[in-house]
Specification:
By secondary structure, the chain is an alpha+beta fold. The chain has 2 domains: 29 residues; 135 residues, Quinohemoprotein amine dehydrogenase alpha subunit, domain 2 (Lipocalin), CATH 2.40.128.120. Helix content is 15%, strand content 46%. The chain has an 8-stranded antiparallel barrel. The termini are far apart.
């Protein structure tokens, strides 16, 4: 029993030492800046946008914030609670990818997940759907604004559309550092 205890203690000490050396090596490495294509960098940054919905008709405009990264990825967020379906739904943060298609034009696609809000009598937290949205962005001449046409789908966990495809427009302003 004493031999087993010694091996156990030795193993714990050795494991701790390996983790300490590995973490020290990682911490000692200088941070590497992401290489950004200068031509594509004009869309890179954080944006505040207003989304206008044409289809389905009757939905109000709503705000969105998004950050477009130089590595071709993006994250975005809108108000997560959507007051539909007998108690509402909530949506996750949007995650996606983008690419430049012309000097001032970009295409961006993102996905988010939708679930029943707590207290929703039908869903009560259950996974409902995946939303996929694509923007066709035209960057303004000033580089600090863009407009876009968008289209999107919402499908259930089996890939079956829950609603007809939606579409509309977006207008965005670059978020600037305030003094």
């Amino acid at each position: 029993m004493k031999t087993t205890t010694r091996y156990s203690q030795l193993w714990k000490c050795l494991s701790a030492a390996v983790l300490l050396v590995a973490s020290s090596a990682l911490a000692a490495r200088p941070a590497q800046a992401q290489v950004v294509d200068v031509k594509a960098s004009s869309i890179v940054g954080s944006w505040k946008a207003v989304v206008n919905v044409a289809n389905p008709p009757g939905l109000p405009s709503f705000p969105v914030v998004m950050t477009i990264h130089g590595d071709g990825t993006m994250v975005g967020m809108r108000l997560p609670f959507i007051p539909i379906l007998a108690g509402g739904t909530v949506e996750t943060t949007e995650h996606g990818a983008w690419r430049q298609v012309d000097d001032n034009q970009f295409v961006l696609t993102f996905m988010d997940l939708i679930q029943g809000a707590p207290g929703n009598t039908n869903l009560n937290g259950a996974f409902l759907a995946t939303e996929t949205i694509t923007f066709h962005i035209v960057l303004g001449a000033d580089g600090n604004t863009f407009t876009a046409q968008w289209s999107g789908t919402i499908v259930d966990p089996n890939g079956v559309p829950l609603l007809p495809p939606g579409n509309g427009t977006i207008s965005a302003v670059r978020i600037q550092v305030e003094s």
